[in-house]
Amino acid sequence: MKVAFIGMGTMGGPMALNILKAGHEVTVHNRTREREEPVAKKGAQRAATPMDAAKNAEVIITCVSDTPDVESVILGTDGVIEGAAAGTVVVDMSTISPSATRQIASQLAEKNVKMIDAPVSGGSEGAIKGTLAIMIGGEVEDVEKATPVLEAMGKSISHVGPIGAGQITKAINQIVIAATYWGVAEGISLGLKAGLDVEKVVQAIEGGAAGSWILSNRSNNMIKNDYPLGFRVRLHRKDLNIALNLARELGVMLPVSAFVEQAETSLMSRGYGDEDVSAMARLVREQSNIA
């Protein structure tokens, strides 16, 4: 299948490589052009603009940082909408506003270009390994057309409803992990303060009801107080803002998410916005006087 992939960031680059490995023809574009080079060296073509990338593609994937970025690469000057042929499926794998997703889909539909929203979870590790969880909103036939490409990137592919439903599901995902990150940070800090071998503590509890991907994969960061990038604090805060805005629209109370959003705002103000989300343990450690 001919695939255009726009966005060669921490997630997008490895995702595009996995599509190549699966045997699809891939054309890539990134605003910072040098980020296209690792994928191009593996056989992808390069395009000067999103419009150029979209030409002749059957499936067009966007994976960029925020709602304005998606609007720009799809609807802006030299955007996807100017190059995509009728019947093409645009797959937005960014995490953005559900309402903006529906508006973008509506404008694409005027040119008979289809769209599904397919945000992901699984961090940079999942992007590299091709084991992402993919949450999809859109029409059944459009999802089916894109599925061979999606299967190259994810091990869990769930069609959850109409356009925008994928973004709402991702917002729920970010709500759940917000609470989990904070809970793991508190537990690790208590164990450290009590003088326990916290690695053994993690082994003891991860097989029971407290077990989670975050406990197994991010607790070591919190123990060592070192937070190499998996998923950036500032991007998770952006995602929580989407969830909180949706909650306000629907009249749903999210006090834990609001608290974590403020904690991440504090980390960003101190220059930690590009660290992994597990860096929220910094705040618990500091308040607990743990070096």
Report on the structure:
- The protein has 291 residues and is α/β, with parallel strands linked by helices.
- The protein has 2 domains: 2-162, Rossmann fold (3-Layer(aba) Sandwich), CATH 3.40.50.720; 168-287, N-(1-d-carboxylethyl)-l-norvaline Dehydrogenase, domain 2 (Orthogonal Bundle).
- Helix content is 52%, strand content 14%.
- It has 14 helices and 9 strands.
- The protein has helices at residues 12-21, 37-41, 50-54, 67-75, 80-83, 98-109, 123-129, 140-150, 165-193, 198-205, 213-224, 233-250, 255-269, 281-287, and strands at residues 2-6, 25-29, 45-46, 59-62, 89-92, 114-117, 120-121, 132-137, 154-161.
- It has a 6-stranded parallel sheet with strand order 3-2-1-4-5-6, with helices on both faces. A 3-stranded mixed sheet has the order 7-8-9.
- Helix 10 (198-205) runs antiparallel to helix 11 (213-224).
- The longest helix has 29 residues, at 165-193.
- It is globular, with a radius of gyration of 20 Å.
- The model has no long low-confidence stretch (mean pLDDT 97).
